[in-house]
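Q: what does this look like with guanosine-5'-diphosphate bound?
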Amino acid sequence: MEQKKLDVVLGLQWGDEGKGKVVDVLTPSYKVVARFQGGPNAGHSLVFDGDSFVLHTVPSGIFREGTVNVIGNGVVIDPVILMEEITEIEKRGVDVSKKLLISKRAHLILPTHRALDAASESAMGKAKIGSTLKGIGPAYADKTGRNGLRVGDLLRSNYKELYEAHKQRHQQLLQQYPPFQLPFNFDEYEKQWFQAVEALRRFPFIDSEVYVNDALKAGTPILAEGAQGSLLDIDFGTYPYVTSSNTMSAGVCTGLGIAPSRVGKVYGIFKAYCTRVGSGPFPTELFDKDGETLRAIGHEYGATTGRPRRTGWLDMVALKYAVMMNGVTDLIMMKSDVLDNFDTIKVAVAYKEGDQVLENFPYDGGKNVTPIYKEFPGWKTPLSGLRRYEDFPGAFKDYINFIETETGCRIKIVSVGPDREATVVR
Ligand code: GDP
Ligand code: IMO
Ligand code: MG
């Protein structure tokens, strides 16, 4: 049997590019879909059959017949959020227990991680990261600090004692912070946490690295689903305004336990413009009517927290950096329809910092830069009903060509609406 390679879908901007939709669209070509990093900070929306659904921890292949969905070792899991999600999916008639596998090596988010996230953000005041307050940072900090509790530990008879030890250590840490408002009821959440842990036991806790490698060896097509976006990568994003995992393609290897030589296609997803939630540099951010229009037409409100997303023009400096860092083989452009009514569309092609022109994405994420824009005439045609590349208006094809030339990468899929069906494959 031919040794298969694993394909990857990941975001090239600051998250919310439309990864959920794309994974759902691509899943019929795969047998296994696996998440490799992040946790319930993610909110991946799927729209089909007149219905919509937001996934946080469960991979976006869950609604397709015959797919196995794996939560890999690189993911951090909050059992409460995961079980709530599973319950909702089951209400839609999906038998999740037949198609969800969880890595024993995935780390658990404890209620005290959520408290620590809130304490840390509150103590930072104006300099806060703008985290989703799901306990992501503290859970990954415990993982790299070699102090974490893992899914496999739930199988130990003394897991409650282990939990208590972690909780006590976290409570001591919490005392070092200035007083802060806990955004949830701790005792209630802890109760739910233990109930959720018991409920989770009906799912197989597995050595997912063995499962994934065996599946590849057997010729099974696998799709890895990224969360967040490349510019939120802990190493290469707009640090410190990032998340706490490697969101780039390199994270697939450590987050699922596969070798670099096993990575096949890297699908890089981007919006036809930019958005960001939370704090941090955003060179092309708009504070004017155009920015409001993008937010209104694009429904740019967080799928996890409901926060309004910051909006701005497409940034080629950042996009080219993300294409390079991920080794993107195929680009996928999302939400093109949101630009339908603009007279003029702008794209940043370089930055200016003082007298200097910057062509490369700077280490500080462009904190003090002004974008240099190229302008494109708008297409002023509704794209959402179109299903063939040939039918796209010329001005939109010019926009696509420009991005392809600049990135050196072909745009294989163009999304023209939230629904599964609103997708043009070239
Ligand atoms: P993810 O986190 O990358 O999965 O993206 P989110 O689900 O957080 O945000 C993307 C939003 O855009 C969701 O509300 C999707 O339903 C919606 N969406 C996806 N593709 C398109 C598109 O091509 N056009 C429009 N108008 N909306 C889209
Ligand atoms: P998906 O997978 C957009 C942002 C937060 C914050 C920073 C750190 O839906 O694209 P964290 O809670 O991870 O400590 O927050 O990262 N962030 C996201 N922004 N989409 C996401 O996920 C995000 N996950 C985290 O807003 O700025
Ligand atoms: Mg999202």
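Residues 15-16, 42-44, 303 surround magnesium ion (ligand 3) (CB under 6 Å). The mean pLDDT is 97.
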